Amino acid sequence: MASGEFDLIERYFTPLSAEATLGIGDDCALLEADHPLLPVGHALCHEAVQGLDPAAAASRLVEGAVKRAKELGTTPLWTTLTLTLPSTDTDWLESFSTALHAALVHHRIGLAGGDTTRGPLAVALQLLCRPAEGIATP
């Protein structure tokens, strides 16, 4: 998203940032976990958002990913967000980021980072989870 990408991240997504050693805006995150097998449990949910209200799209995205993670017996801790936009629509971004924030706070999930690109509207969320109880530690 060229030069406006960092402004977009700062305005809409930095307030959702997880506590991280290195986080949002760096195209990389360094997270301190209390379990050595952190990446074992993850869920990926990709929603086609054309025609959906942005707040509904954000809520649906988080709820779908959290449901899948819990079905696997994992506990979501952080998430990454991939957002592809045809243009910078501030009304859409405000509605989406506000609903995303509410859903992430509700589930106690921090936004660790992600990517923004230009193209047809698409949103993907990946959860980083604590493994289920009983998973052996190496």
Question: What does this molecule look like?
Answer:
This protein is of the alpha+beta class and 138 residues long. It has one domain: PurM-like, N-terminal domain (60s Ribosomal Protein L30, Chain: A, 2-Layer Sandwich), CATH 3.30.1330.10. It is 33% helix and 26% strand. It is built from three helices and four strands; from the N terminus they run αβαβαββ. The chain has a four-stranded mixed β-sheet. Helix 3 links the parallel strand 2 (75-85) and strand 3 (110-118). Helix 2 runs parallel beside helix 3. It is globular and about 45 Å long. The termini are far apart.
Rg for CA atoms: 15 Å
Supply the number of helical segments. 3
CATH superfamily: PurM-like, N-terminal domain
Termini separation comes to 41 Å
Largest beta-sheet details: 4 strands, mixed
Nearest-integer average pLDDT: 75
CATH architecture: 2-Layer Sandwich
In short, what is this structure?
The protein has three helices and four strands. It has 138 residues and is an alpha+beta fold.
List the helices and strands and how they pair.
Blueprint (H helix, E strand, L loop, with lengths): L4 H9 L27 E7 L6 H18 L3 E11 L4 H18 L2 E9 L3 E9 L8
Helix pairs in contact: 2-3
Features:
138 residues, alpha+beta, 60s Ribosomal Protein L30, Chain: A, four-stranded mixed β-sheet, 4 strands, 33% helix, globular
